[in-house]
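Hello, quick one for you while I still have it in my head. No rush at all, and the record is pasted right below.
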Amino acid sequence: MVEILEAQGIAVEFSCDQTCCGQPAFNGGFWNDARGMARHTLDVFSRTGDPIVVPSGSCADMIVHQYPELLRDDVEYVSKAQNVAARTYEFTQFMVDKIGLSNVGASFCGRAAYHPSCHGMRGLNLREQAQTLMEHVDGLEQVELPCAEECCGFGGLFSVTMSAISGAILEQKLDHLIASGADLLVASDVGCLMHMAGGLQRRGSEIAVKHIAEILNEQG
């Protein structure tokens, strides 16, 4: 992602002080722990007034929607949360909606199915951004993923606490993926990618799994 942004003349700063956004703790009901991680993240990103670009829809949704709510009674941090939330973007959202760029000159051969993550689609209303970017990748053919908007079953801690249900949802998703005829699965959320890649590996499938930034950074 950094290489793609820098190729467009955008200077990227990465603070090594940043840690987890706190979403796993938040989803697990450990809100005090999540608040601690949120405050730390806000301190780090409040050092700059620039846009914050996140390569995962779930983390972006946590910062954009959950931080202001989680810290609404914290007089010191609520304004920080609102400020950071207002300038935080998921990667494809930043590319297409913020800077108006749909063609990065990428080239990649394959038949790709795109899985829209739940947090990106339902939390951030990301609908067409990724497909718009993929349309301009030379040599890449997009194929329809049946029931694409259905969850892959990961759901963070859900995949651990309710593994049987998570696994059943995953198997259905993989059935749809294989039926699509794709030789490549693309998504914008690392959790979904990890979950589906594991399922494909256990099946012995040769379908490749890549984050959209990996595709957009290819030059043939």
